[in-house]
Amino acid sequence: MGFGTMAQTFNAVTVENGTGMGRFMLVCEHASNAFPDAFGDLGIDADTARSHVAWDPGALALARALSKRLDSVLIHAGVSRLIQDLNRPPNAQSAMPEKSEVYLIPGNRDLTTAERLRRTREIYIPFHARVAAELAQRLARGEQPAFVTVHSFTPVYFGQPRNVEIGFIHDGDASFAETVLDRARVTTGHRCELNAPYSAADGVAHTLRLHATPYGLRHVMIEVRNDLLAEDAAVTRIADGLAEALRRALEWLEDVGNGKETV
Amino acid sequence: MGFGTMAQTFNAVTVENGTGMGRFMLVCEHASNAFPDAFGDLGIDADTARSHVAWDPGALALARALSKRLDSVLIHAGVSRLIQDLNRPPNAQSAMPEKSEVYLIPGNRDLTTAERLRRTREIYIPFHARVAAELAQRLARGEQPAFVTVHSFTPVYFGQPRNVEIGFIHDGDASFAETVLDRARVTTGHRCELNAPYSAADGVAHTLRLHATPYGLRHVMIEVRNDLLAEDAAVTRIADGLAEALRRALEWLEDVGNGKETV
Question: What keywords appear on the UniProt entry (chains A, B) (predicted)?
């Protein structure tokens, strides 16, 4: 096959830094481009398996760096989004896409109901059950974690270059995303935008909607252009800036809530 | 103890009619007034354990009758809401209340974090994980179930009589609740009201918000005044009327969507 990412077994979900005392929950749905034997390679070639349609390159490294800096739990996925996109409802066409951007995915063509059901049972259900359980336990302990999903996006999409470098996307409540964005412009030095290169209206905020919004949690989906994550040193630098922005945003919003600041 | 409902073991969640081919998912969070040994009786007396603060009397019988008439899955809880109210976030005071209406619950006073966490792990997490899994599998099969929670309420609350007989409560999207309500007025002959005797703004729509709203599902929380459910014959009659209203509401909304009706 030639993929570096073929695997005999797989974990739908992995939790790291579960005992971290920080105030955040980090989730990385597109962490992996693994194609475990149970699902096969979907008939794609090695270039496709390494491309942004199979995963979010650099997102796991960034999420791990944030988890370390924020001393906060990280939950990440163990299979390619082409097998099951965990940031989509299981009935969405894009959850098991026949075509992603310009790439055809033969193994997703004319999927049987049985295969959709199997992937949902083996990947979607355990992943989101684990996120829900980690969250419920923190709530029961009296914590109100800020909920952060970590993604990367391709610099060129359908042939069009994207100028935005880091996007901050929210579901129902914009306040945390806006506050992080303001700080990230300074702390990262990158071109930061709200709800770019896409927004919840495009159906990309499923994880936030499923977990953060029902509990009224502060939340943001961070999207970093993946060419900025190609080198370790760059990941480190961006993680430094984003961790600082996330921490300051939470402090500022809590100070406002406590009357220490005026809005 | 004298409770008819003390139990050595317990199931946090029970699924009935899981292979039903109907278009609904029925959930009954307050089905049981069981106080399993693992949690004890919370220091309450037998009257309190039989009262509406411990469960929704008649709700399970009604939910089962609806499950049969609609040939649809029913998921119900196995412990008293005083141990864990599954229709509240686990961090809400009312999830493990020290006082419910006029009843003091000694076993919930000054709960330790460890005990809150244990109940959340043993009751809340498995219950909602099962609801989520049943729903995800139906979505993966291409179904779009209408999501219905079944409750009962006390005719007298803090000394005030309630005139409403059946309430229809919604979370974000009112359309299904309104449509069922209109039909239920005719099919049940009872005094039906929207968002009565309380509404999602009172924090009582947690289950709808956690499961139905993120997927954009049609949903309604049905609240029947519990004096109307005291006799089997009455449960049967109300179930007939509500099942008819639910079925007709779904058909009507789908016909509108298909252009067969004008709004």
Answer: Hydrolase
Mutate to test the interface with A, among B171, B204, B215, B217 (most CBs of A within 10 A): B215
The count of structural domains within chain A is 1
For A14, counting Cβ atoms within 10 Å of its Cβ (0-12 exposed, 13-18 middle, 19+ buried), the class is middle
Q: Cβ of B209 and A214 within 8 Å?
A: yes
- Write out chain B residues lying below 8 Å of A125, CB-based: 132-133, 136-137
For A123-166, what is each residue's pLDDT tens digit?
Answer: 999 999 999 999 999 999 999 999 999 999 999 999 999 999 99
**What does the pLDDT look like over A8-21, one tens digit per residue?**
788 999 999 999 99
Backbone angles phi, psi at B255, to 5 degrees: -65, -40
Q: How far is CA B138 from CA A121, B23, B56, B67, in A?
A: 11, 10, 27, 16
Distance CA A168, CA A190 (A): 12
Q: Omega of the bond prior to A197 within 30 degrees of 0, cis?
A: yes
Residue A1 included in any domain: no
d(C-alpha A49, C-alpha B204), whole Å: 45
Q: How buried is B159 (Cβ within 10 angstroms: 0-12 exposed, 13-18 middle, 19+ buried)?
A: exposed
Supply the range of the domain harboring residue A113: 6-257
Binary contact (B133, A136; C-beta < 8 A): no
Contact B243, B70 (CB under 8 A): yes
Q: Please indicate, yes or no, if residue A263 is contained in any of the structural domains.
A: no
Is residue B210 exposed (0-12), middle (13-18) or buried (19+ Cβ within 10 Å)? buried
CB contact under 8 A, B137 and A116: no
Distances (CA, A) of B134 to A51, B16, B24, B139: 33, 11, 12, 9
- Inspect the interface and report whether the beta carbons of B214 and A210 lie closer than 8 Å: yes
Distances (CA, A) of A244 to A168, A237, B172: 15, 11, 35
Please report which helix (H) or strand (E) contains residue A220, including its range: strand A219-225
Q: A34 near A7, Cβ under 8 Å?
A: yes
CA A236 to chain B, closest CA, distance in angstroms equals: 34
A262, part of any domain = no
- Select from A137, A206, A219 the residue whose CB has the most chain B CBs within 10 Å, as the one to mutate to test that interface: A137
- For chain A, how long is the longest CA-to-CA vector? 60
Q: How far is B116 from chain A (nearest CA, A)?
A: 6
Cβ-based neighbours of B215, under 8 Å, separated by 6 or more = A89, A91, B135, B139
Here the CATH number for the domain that contains residue A213 is: 3.40.630.40
β-pairing, A219-225 with A166-169? antiparallel
* Tens-digit pLDDT profile for residues A203-251: 999 999 999 999 999 999 999 999 999 999 999 999 999 999 999 999 9
Contact across the interface for B129 and A133, Cβ inside 8 Å: yes
- B113 vs A140: CB contact, 8 Å cut-off? yes
ipTM for the predicted complex comes to 0.95
